[in-house]
């Protein structure tokens, strides 16, 4: 297959067209993933005083705040957002009983409407705000694994959930080995486009309910993909669907303006007998795949344009393993260093940007690394299952943030150490730079053994 792609074009017109079409839905998927940032925006609030209307002004003079609200050093203005004195404080030294409140006044200077405001998802109900995002991530957990299998049977476009991992695998399998890195990194650039697009839409649409509609409606445009997008020729040939694979490969050559012989087509779709498919359990059945699977699971669970561009440059020069390790470790260290600095300082802001850049870059690398490390028959399952574990991390992350209410540094320690340790684990993986993508599990096992034997031979000769 690699030789055929070299002959007809590793990234010709056919691949470019499909790359653009497959990448566009990523914008919609990414906007949904980060929608809760705007839909459930955290809003400044305080208890509603007995005589106040619901739409009362949030701001109060310090003198009034002293009379009605206990001090709280963890808030921006120094007064409690969730409790109130039972009686009016008559002097500075008096000690009064406090009580929790169920009605709140919100600061609407930044957000006129929010799910947090409409449903009072603050104070004792703040866990509900975290649960909403966690439920979304749990949905992607099942979607990543389920649609990883579903993509083996249906063409892209029938559904939105899980579309990125399906599109990513198809993109990686339709280009030659010298172009895989470019395609893999550029595919993640559409996530960055979604950040800008989503923020612009949120600025223009002030109602959080209509904002959700605006984020979701474009998905309808991708329904025709069911008839437009071609299935992966690699997967078809690995499944023994030779005629369908040949038709796709002919279409690639024709679109790229190349002529190929029947003999070249036959050689491209030729696969050894005895292995026609793979499943989730194959990732753990073989030792050489089991270690990679476990490490990629951890790496995915622990994790923007500068990071992507740097990744594109460094993995072409150095490879996949060392840059992935370096970026994840650097991101983790940046979080840990921030513990010792003033949270409002410029140094913390710089460290945050460095950490974000590194994690974004590592996120792009790990998708390319995962796709190259597994054979075609289980590639969808491997990428989907790794993405599933990443969703577990995403679901837990919102609750980890809540631990900051008990001890503010704790979330930073957990996230920082997770990222750093995941980077170290990546050193146990084998480099894939310049290697052809295997189609069958036995091919991957044999190539892994060959690499081990070559390494052993070098050691002996030394």
UniProtKB/TrEMBL annotation:
Keywords: Membrane, Transmembrane, Transmembrane helix
GO molecular function annotations of the record: transmembrane transporter activity
Gene3D superfamilies, per database record: MFS general substrate transporter like domains
Transmembrane segments: 20-39, 154-171, 183-204, 210-229, 294-315, 321-341, 348-369, 410-429
A single cellular component GO annotation: membrane
Subcellular location: Membrane
Matching Pfam families: Sugar_tr
The keyword GTP-binding is assigned to this record: no
Top-level taxon of the source organism: Eukaryota
Membrane topology: Multi-pass membrane protein
UniProt protein name: Organic cation transporter protein
Organism of provenance: Armadillidium nasatum
Lineage: Eukaryota, Metazoa, Ecdysozoa, Arthropoda, Crustacea
């Amino acid at each position: 297959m690699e030789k055929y792609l070299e002959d007809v074009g590793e990234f010709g017109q056919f691949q470019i067209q499909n790359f653009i079409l497959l990448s566009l839905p990523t914008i919609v998927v990414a906007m949904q993933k980060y929608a809760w940032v705007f839909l459930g925006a955290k809003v400044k609030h305080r208890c509603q005083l007995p005589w106040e209307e619901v739409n009362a002004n949030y701001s109060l003079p310090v003198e009034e705040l002293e009379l009605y609200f206990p001090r709280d050093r963890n808030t921006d203005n120094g007064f409690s957002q969730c409790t109130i004195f039972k009686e009016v404080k008559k002097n500075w030294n008096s000690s009064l009983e406090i009580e929790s409140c169920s009605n709140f006044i919100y600061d609407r200077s930044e957000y006129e409407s929010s799910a947090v405001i409409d449903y009072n998802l603050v104070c004792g109900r703040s866990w509900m705000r975290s649960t909403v995002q966690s439920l979304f991530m749990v949905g992607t957990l099942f979607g990543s694994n389920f649609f990883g299998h579903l993509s083996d049977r249906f063409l892209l476009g029938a559904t939105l959930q899980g579309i990125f991992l399906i599109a990513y695998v198809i993109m990686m399998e339709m280009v030659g080995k010298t172009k895989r890195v470019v395609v893999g990194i550029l595919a993640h650039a559409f996530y960055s486009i979604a950040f800008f697009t989503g923020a612009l839409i949120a600025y223009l649409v002030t109602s959080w309910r209509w904002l959700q509609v605006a984020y979701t409606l474009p998905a309808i445009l991708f329904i025709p993909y069911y008839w437009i997008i071609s299935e992966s020729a690699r997967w078809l040939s690995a499944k023994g669907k030779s005629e369908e694979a040949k038709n796709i490969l002919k279409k690639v050559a024709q679109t790229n303006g190349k002529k190929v012989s029947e003999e070249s087509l036959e050689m491209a779709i030729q696969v050894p007998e005895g292995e026609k498919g793979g499943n989730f359990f194959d990732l753990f059945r073989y030792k050489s795949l089991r270690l990679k699977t476990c490490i990629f699971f951890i790496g995915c669970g622990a994790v923007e344009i500068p990071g992507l561009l740097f990744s594109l440059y460094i993995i072409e020069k150095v490879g996949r393993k060392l840059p992935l390790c370096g970026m994840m470790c650097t991101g983790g260290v940046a979080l840990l260093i921030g513990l010792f600095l003033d949270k409002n300082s410029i140094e913390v802001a710089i460290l945050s940007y460095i950490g974000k850049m590194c994690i974004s870059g590592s996120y792009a690398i790990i998708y390319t690394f995962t796709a190259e490390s597994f054979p075609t028959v289980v590639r969808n399952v491997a990428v989907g299952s790794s993405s599933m574990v990443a969703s577990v991390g995403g679901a837990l992350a919102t609750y980890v943030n809540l631990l900051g209410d008990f001890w503010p540094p704790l979330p930073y320690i957990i996230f920082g150490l997770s990222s750093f340790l995941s980077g170290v684990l990546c050193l146990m993986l084998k480099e894939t730079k310049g290697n052809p993508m295997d189609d069958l599990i036995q091919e991957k096992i044999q190539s892994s053994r060959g690499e081990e034997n070559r390494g052993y031979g070098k050691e002996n000769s030394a």
